[in-house]
TrEMBL record:
<keyword id="KW-0418">Kinase</keyword>
<dbReference type="Pfam" id="PF00370">
    <property type="entry name" value="FGGY_N"/>
</dbReference>
<dbReference type="InterPro" id="IPR043129">
    <property type="entry name" value="ATPase_NBD"/>
</dbReference>
<feature type="domain" description="Carbohydrate kinase FGGY N-terminal">
    <location>
        <begin position="9"/>
        <end position="229"/>
    </location>
</feature>
<protein>
    <recommendedName>
        <fullName>Carbohydrate kinase FGGY N-terminal domain-containing protein</fullName>
    </recommendedName>
</protein>
<dbReference type="GO" id="GO:0006071">
    <property type="term" value="P:glycerol metabolic process"/>
</dbReference>
<dbReference type="GO" id="GO:0050277">
    <property type="term" value="F:sedoheptulokinase activity"/>
</dbReference>
<dbReference type="GO" id="GO:0005829">
    <property type="term" value="C:cytosol"/>
</dbReference>
<comment type="similarity">
    <text>Belongs to the FGGY kinase family.</text>
</comment>
<dbReference type="InterPro" id="IPR018484">
    <property type="entry name" value="FGGY_N"/>
</dbReference>
<keyword id="KW-0808">Transferase</keyword>
Length: 472
């Protein structure tokens, strides 16, 4: 046990495919312990296009991570900060949403009457449905997979009656471990739900009342007030404050960004490129349907181009290849398919006639009906390496079409920081990013969201976060 460590902060990231937790020394900002667990939470959707995750599996993945942290350090945790996947919504019953398994073991919670997590990838709210909704009193659009549009869809089919509250999956978990009845949500995550005015920090109650019978009381209170552990949790002391959960991309950006003149390009399941608006008293407008302005920290905004086309497009191709292999009566582990495709794809970098692939098979929020396209097909590029390289190039070119070099230079950006699990293990994507942007690029591994959440928590404890001697 390191006796020199006096105070620790616990950062938690509830991601789309995994949960990560880290213990960070408040004084040095160094990570003392990091744990990760895949959630394996995806479940069969209720309708075609639905995307659901089992809320209990997500919590149990967090429980597993907490069990593996060094117990001797947990009593030194002075604050907990959660972040996680944005847009998606979970519903729960106020009396039976959870229970403590044992009064003598306050870390043992059992998830009860809770809905699945309707994720940001859920497609039940198609363009036709979205066109029937009231126009938000907000500069931010409402899309499929957004909390409020999903709630309206469920409400119109009488599927909300057994529940009392809603929030992100992180809000539910915070409510459970603090044993708090009334949920709250940060402005960052409320903005991701849609129908939130980020200037007034209020839900669009007037617009939502246009939806007959819509239960406004479901929506959590938009707040930056802490909640507190009612009992100790994994030896973290009773009364430890927990901030309202934050957006994973904001936290990843905080952990990654180098200075005010740098942008962050994150490529994981999906993809985002963003920079922090330096203009004081910035008032966001809805003039651009592709670049949006989301709340960052300390009344700042970030300009974000968010794509639904990221590592998921490559993963779909790998899955397809595996299905083809099985159809041929063979068996190859998916990990080996990944290795072979990335190796052959890297070798196809200098082709004279490259395959042109637009891998937007999931559509985009500004164009939900968009489909993928393939062109420039010749006999020489009908091979796995060319296809893999074409998908990687297409992912990057799609991002650059949403926020390109000109947009970044006009904002004074001089450096792009590349991060994200799909990017860091893929040399093809790295090369294509350098080709697509006429700006220097650095790739960084430390930009995980749970560390960013921890940094934000340290800031809330009175320790400013500085990057290259600049206060963000």
């Amino acid at each position: 046990m390191d006796m020199s460590i006096k105070e620790l902060l616990l950062g938690v990231d509830i991601g789309t495919t995994s949960v990560k937790v880290c213990l960070v020394d408040v004084a040095t900002k160094k990570v003392i312990s990091l744990q990760k667990k895949d959630t394996a939470a995806r479940i069969t959707p209720d309708i075609p296009g639905g995307d659901l995750q089992d809320s209990s599996r997500i919590y149990y993945a967090l429980h597993s991570c907490m069990n593996r942290l060094p117990k001797e350090n947990l009593s030194k945790v002075r604050r907990i900060t959660f972040c996680g996947q944005m847009h998606g919504v979970t519903l729960w019953n106020k009396t039976s949403g959870w229970r403590r398994k044992c009064k003598n073991s306050s870390d043992q919670f059992e998830v009860g009457d809770v809905s699945p997590l309707y994720t940001w990838q859920d497609k039940r709210c198609d363009s036709q449905f979205l066109s029937t909704l009231p126009r938000p009193n907000s500069h931010l659009r409402v899309g499929s997979g957004y909390g409020c549009s999903t709630l309206i869809w469920l409400h119109q089919r009488n599927l909300l009656k057994r529940y009392d509250y809603c929030g992100t999956i992180m809000d539910f978990i915070i409510g459970m471990i603090t044993e708090t009845e009334n949920p709250s949500i940060s402005l960052q995550n409320a903005a991701s739900f849609g129908y939130c005015n980020t200037i007034t920090r209020q839900w669009n109650a007037e617009q939502l009342r246009e939806i007959k019978g819509f239960p406004l009381h479901f929506l959590p209170n938009i707040s930056n007030e802490d909640q507190f552990l009612k009992n100790s949790w994994f030896d973290i002391p009773q009364g430890t404050p927990i901030s309202p959960s934050l957006g994973d991309f904001q936290c990843s950006t905080l952990a990654t960004i180098k200075n005010k003149k740098s942008a962050v390009l994150n490529l994981s399941t999906s993809a985002q490129i963003a920079f922090i608006i330096q203009e004081s008293h910035f008032i966001p407008k809805d003039e651009n349907e592709i670049i949006e302005y989301f709340p960052f920290f300390d009344n700042q905004y970030m300009a974000v181009a968010a794509s639904l086309t990221g590592g998921n497009a490559l993963a779909e191709f790998v899955h397809a290849v595996q299905c083809w292999v099985i159809d041929l009566g063979l068996s190859i582990p998916q990990s080996k398919i990944w290795d072979k495709l990335l190796t052959h794809g890297d070798n196809a970098c200098d082709e004279e006639n490259p395959l042109q692939i637009r891998p937007t098979i999931f559509g985009e929020r500004h164009n939900p009906e968009e489909k993928g396209q393939v062109s420039n097909v010749v006999p020489a590029n009908l091979n796995l390496g060319s296809i893999t390289h074409g998908i990687c190039r297409g992912i990057v070119q799609n991002m650059a079409s949403m926020m390109g070099t000109k947009d970044l230079k006009n904002a004074g950006i001089e450096l792009i920081m590349g991060s994200g699990s799909a990017l860091l293990r893929n040399e093809i994507l790295k090369k294509e990013i350098k080709l697509a942007y006429d700006i220097p690029v650095e790739f960084v591994e430390q930009g995980n969201a749970c560390y960013g959440a921890a940094l934000r928590g340290i800031h809330l404890m009175g320790h400013p976060i500085h990057h290259n001697n600049e206060k963000l």
